[in-house]
Amino acid sequence: MIGGGAASNGDAAPLLEVRHVSKYFGNVIALRDISMEVRAGEVTCVLGDNGAGKSSLIKILSGVHPHDDGEFLVGGRSVRFSGPRDARAEGISVVFQDLATVPLMSIWRNFFLGSEPTRGLGPARRLNVKFAKNVMREEMHKMGIDVRDPDQPVGTLSGGERQAVAIARAVYFGAKVLILDEPTSALGVRQSGIVLKYVIQARERGLGVIFITHNPHHAYPVGDRFVILNRGRLMGSFAKSETTLAALTQMMAGGDELERLSKELEKMATEPELEQVARELAEEAGGKATSGDMER
Amino acid sequence: MSVASTPVPAAPAPRAKGVGTDERIGGVRLVVRLLQRPELGALLGAVAVYLLFASVDSTPGHKFSSIAGMQNWTDAASTYGIMAVAVAMLMIGGEFDLSAGVMTGTSGLLLGMLITRYGLNVWVGIVLVFIFAAAIGALNGFLVIRTKLPSFIITLATFFVLRGVNVGVTLLLTNTVRFDITDKVPGFSSAQAIFGSTFLSPYNFQTAVLWWIAITIVATWVLTRTTFGNWIYAVGGDSNAARNVGVPVARTKVILFMGTAMSAALVGIMVALRYKGIQSGQGVGQEFFYIIAAVVGGCLLTGGYGSAIGASIGALIIGFAQIGIIFANWDSNWYFTFLGVILFLAVGVNTLVRRRATSARR
Questions:
Q1: Residue among B259, B128, B126, B137 at smallest CA distance from B196
Q2: Which of A120, A156, A224, B200 could potentially form a cystine with A124 if both were Cys, beta carbons 3.0 to 4.6 Å apart?
């Protein structure tokens, strides 16, 4: 059943787990000693500012780069991927930031792009259009979207709906672990909300979701467990019950840095708006102390 | 998104679609669907151009709108049409081929050389010419993929290389600018019957017209109903996205380049067999007509959008203009100006029509 978010349902092997993984590019340490796990029916949020090592981690998980140290387990078995194809075969699917959809093509064509269903043999082999449209409609319906016209170009969909197409496609083609790379970063408030809804839906359907973001306000409401990266290192790993939004924010940017930044801003502040920003930074930096939820 | 200068699609819909809200009425939907077709603007344009030249026709008995006139403009349009369809597929795939025109000359000359100088069976010669063209197309594609330079530049280089070779080799072998082809080799009459003869006896339509129609049908099937067609639209629309979902982008593009080169070979073979000889300058400058036909037919210059039927209609418009201007007794130089204006109008109409169609969906 769907886990309550606690780390205690120990015996079942996690869908995906990394233990003490490191990654070096020449003498640059991209990741050092990272451990995390992803369980079915849970959302694991990977949080970190720019340059924290989020994309290196995705690339290891999705098979683009092999890891250098440590262990990578899928369903309890130790694996070493030699390419994204291997990862996909294990049911690990990435929904990239740019979504991998072609704006001018219809929804059903995008849905099956690269894995087109066909019927007939030899020169009469053709796309099974009816099947493709029906499946697409069904899968989108499961995401809560009613597609009236399968021929509608994807480019006329909203950002959130396009995300839904990409997620539905990954799920249909057998994803067990869904890696969402900054799915809300390019979206407005409303569209971000819609995407968060899809994240929860994917979780409800029993997928393990890795939600990569630099926005704790998006991560906290949907996450079951949080992994915080900073400058290639693991800053902390928590179940939802063990942390608060404010604490997450504070750890993510590195509390000391935020505090210093707020002081500097205060010094420079001649405008009332800047003073306000400085106050907010100070508040976030001291997040652990105030400890209250900051959800608006 | 990354469709910078293209009119479609505009910003994402501002509202999420509520389930089961405004159910559209069938009639409206049909109109929207029609407006969305890339070839609609071209079809309207073709009707307008036809009516224009039918009305300014100054030949006795209004030849333009007679069957004899039809023989004339289908003849003119057919070779443009064969090429325009191939070029349109390449453009949908996001690339250009400026060497397509001169390739017709190279292929015809090569066929002439093989059968006249080496006495080869014409059919063997034809097969060799197709293989040669496929190789040149593959080279174009390979260079575009490998260097990541715009195909515009790569094929411009191919264009100039072949143009020089055509004239140079012809001059070396014949001391003239024309390569005459003997009909005293095995297979000539059967090959000519298929590639360069006529049908429907009193009117004598060119067999090229049948090739044109067949190629348009096959291309439409490939584009709309096959996996490869799906890939063509994808690599032209967003090659990164296509690569991410496992579409073989390089292979798709190379095959498209081979397609235009082999279509050029077909046209070159037709010209050579029909006229029993070929000029060394054959095809130079024609590449722009193919692109005009494709664009008039609704292809986006940025790729990812267009149709084979549209390109064929574009070629038909060029045929109308070429013959219509002669029948109207105008100075034939106005032909180019006319095509320029048509191109301009077509792009404008296409943009408008598509913008309306995509905005009507919200």
A1: B126
A2: A120
Report the chain A residue with the minimal C-alpha distance to residue B3.
A103
Every domain of chain B and the residues it spans: 40-356
Question: Three-class SS string for A77-129?
Answer: EECCCCCHHHHHHCCEEEECCCCCCCCCCEHHHHHHCCCCCEECCHHHCEECH
Place of tokens 């467990």: A225
Nearest partner of A246 among A291, A212, A205, A289, judged by Cα = A291
CATH of domain A36-243: 3.40.50.300
Q: How far apart, in whole angstroms, are the C-alpha atoms of residue A206 and residue A3?
A: 10
Give, as one character, the DSSP assignment of residue B104. H
CA distance A147 to chain B (A): 9
Q: Give chain B's length.
A: 362
- Which residue in the block uniquely carries the two structure tokens 């106005």? B334
**Interchain contact, A156 vs B358, CB within 8 Å:** yes
Residue whose structure tokens are 């073709």: B46
The minimum CA-CA distance between A229 and chain B, rounded to whole Å, is 26
| Contact indicator for B320, B49 with CB cutoff of 8 Å | yes
Burial of A151 (C-beta count, 10 Å sphere; 0-12/13-18/19+): middle
What pTM was computed for the model?
A: 0.81
> Quick check: B234 and A144 CB within 8 A?
no
The pLDDT averaged over each successive group of 10 residues in chain B (362 residues) is: 38 40 50 71 88 91 90 95 97 95 96 91 96 97 96 96 94 89 90 92 92 97 94 92 87 97 97 93 93 91 90 95 92 90 83 60 42
Q: How far is A181 from chain B (nearest CA, A)?
A: 14
For B244-279, letters b (16+ CB in 10 Å) and e give bbebebbebbbbbbbbbbbbbbbbbbbbbbbeebbb
Residue limits of CATH 3.40.50.300 in chain A: 36-243
Please name which of B7, B14, B36, B236 lies closest in space to residue A102, comparing C-alpha atoms. B236
